[in-house]
Amino acid sequence: MINPTAKSQRRHWPLFASAAVAGLVFVPAVPAMAQQVPDGASNGAGVSAESSQGGIEEIIVTARKRREKLQEVPIAISALSAAQLQRRDVQSVMDMSSVVPNFQAPRNTVSFSAPQFYLRGAGRANNNWNAENAVAVFVDDIYLQSTAAAYIDQIDFERVEVLRGPQGTLYGRNATVGAIKFIPRRPDLGRVQASLTGAAGSNNRRDIKGYVSVPLIADKLAIKLDAYLTQNDGFMKLVDNSNKVLSDDVSRTKHYGARFSSLWQPTSGVEFELNVDGYKQDDGTNLSTPIVPDDPTSFAQLLSKSGTSNFRPLYGPNRGSFEPLTAQGGFRKWPGSHYDGYGIVFKSSIDTGLGTFKSITGYRKYTGDYVTQLSGRSSRSTIFGVTIGSTVETHEDYKQFSQEFQLTGSIAEKFKYTAGLYYFSNQWHQLQYGSTIGVPVEFSPVAYPGYTERFGGSYQDTNLDSKSYAIYFDASWELVKNLSLIGGARQTWDKKRISYDSRFEDNLTRYPGFPVNPARDFSRFTPRVGLNWQATPDILLYGTYTEGYKAGNLEGDRATSPGPASNYLEPETVKTFEAGIKAEWFGRTLRTNLTAFSSKFKNHADLISPQTVALSDQRINGIELEVNWSPIRALQIYGNLGLLDAKYTRADPTHPIFAPDFYGFAPGLGAKPVAAPDYSFSAGFTYEQPIGKLGSLSLTGSVDGVGKQFNGLGVANLDSEIVPAYAVANTSVTFKTMADRVTLTAGLNNVFDKTYWVTGFFGSVPEYAGRNYANGRNWYVRLGYRF
């Protein structure tokens, strides 16, 4: 944040960090409540039930691609069970913001179906074909390059693992700040299981989710079918110039799909899985709320970077209108998005004399189109003969294939290893129209009927063909009792081939210099090394040095000049030092996991416009703390805290942080990187009280908070980009019958109806000044039955 006290705040950062870490332990601060489960069954997180005296559940994770206890893995990792996701009313990955330390997933400012991910103060705000995220997403062990396929509807996941920090060794490119793993629950080989859950709530929310798992051959073959339908009218209102409501479902969402999974274990040590899923997403638009400074006619206030300008919603929070150009429509006649796709995963594993050999084959495909207006006002801005509209229309055809071979094993229980080969390819075709380029109208060959001026838009027809090859190795070697050397390495080769055509408004006349066919190869060696000391049976200390790598992308997304359409950016790299302490206390009733890290990024790509990107180097230090406490069986308390100190260390001379505002002020290297709040936290509790033979009643409460930050596609540190600090409270009450057959929950999110915003669009004209606010107070009721 840019203000006179910024340097003072940085000086006091270590003091604040120490005080916050010490204080959080005493906050009535859900993640891991011990679950009563039938003998031989898991409770939804790959965990075992605890004794009646209370305790923290034992979570099994696969962060190192082998099954290990969470507390024995020398990685900063958060694991969320199915029960946690339900208690938090997590409907999609975007609801996980703040639930994990230093993790944010705000809604995409363009399309609902493409979440944004920021972890440890780094990530990427858009989902363009030429921009890959720094947070790698895996579903059922398959990497998803396009986050348009990463809007994960919560059907029946066994757990979600969030690996913080570079994961370049085991998870490859595009995991420079971490990886998210969604692990679906597998079929049960021993007994029939079924569940059906329905929910209703504010904004006409309606959810139906269920599954049935059936063993076809006892202990050998089982199948499982999941299905879901989730929809709501959203909380955005469409208004006209007089602020009259025209529609209250402009931001509607409707998602439905199904997943078939199978598990076959013909003999001991041999296993096969075949999983197929399909989905459809029909959404409205994430229309931004237009904002104006105190003096709407002042460009000085609009472009201020000194922290002196205040902004207000033009029509009110979560209210916006369509400009005339949006209504034209190209692929769709109404702003919104539609995606449909499917995926196939085949896994096989066999125990050998060398270890367990595993093959993972995955294929995913989707088609999608959307029309969106980036601002939320009903008039166009035309300046100096340039039409600055704000419509983007896109059609995408995407498919990917991956193949991975793994070998995991151990030698005399002293040397544990994972080795593998990996291949990935994807083809991404996109036809896109954008009116945000600002093309001089006299250059536009056509004019829309009924309009007196020409529109400065352009079409881009692009085809991306990328391939990636890798070989990796990761190991843990016990040098002496309880002291292990850990490390590994990965060698990656990437090939990218692109055909790029850019046309005028008529979609026929080419811009000069097009088409172009840029191609480039990349390669990178990413090592990891560290020490792991099991000081006591309940205390683990570790320290690591890790490198991460993200392949270079093409600079221009909607370029009208062959320069950005042919220029590949240099690869983004990161070097991270990390130290952690994982500990359990008082008979495993208290768990504390503390991590400190320092990361140096090189060639981080900051988006300036659809055809302009500036590179920068950044240094991000941080602390992460997770606390789980179960003083008695009936009470579970939790808290997490993330602290960040992020700064630029170098930037291209053309980077907007060096551009002065109307007052002559430029933040320069003192600017604050995007989505890097000084702090974020989450705290809460669950208290469960038995009700005789009827069952039990439980009360949950939580508070999630994020500190002041800059957030939006802009990286100029404009006053309009400042997100004030906010904290949101949520609560719910749940009744469960004996054996948890029937569950009834009533919940309230944003209890105090806090008005806050999380991201937006910003630029040099009022057309671009817009914010995306969060939902206000909202309620839900959920009824579930299982057997």
Number of spatially distinct domains: 1
> pLDDT below 50 for ≥5 consecutive residues: which ranges?
1-53, 328-332
The total beta strand count reads 44
Total of helices: 5
Assembly state (oligomeric): single chain
Do you know the CATH topology? Answer: Maltoporin, Chain A
Give the overall silhouette.
globular
Main pleated-sheet profile: 22 strands, antiparallel, barrel
> What level of helicity do the residues show?
under 10%
What is the CA-based Rg, rounded? 26 Å
Named CATH architecture: Beta Barrel
CATH class: Mainly Beta
Ends distance? 53 Å
CATH superfamily: TonB-dependent receptor, beta-barrel domain
Query: Please, what is the average pLDDT?
Result: 84
Query: Which structural category fits the helices and strands?
Result: mainly beta
Strand content: over 45%
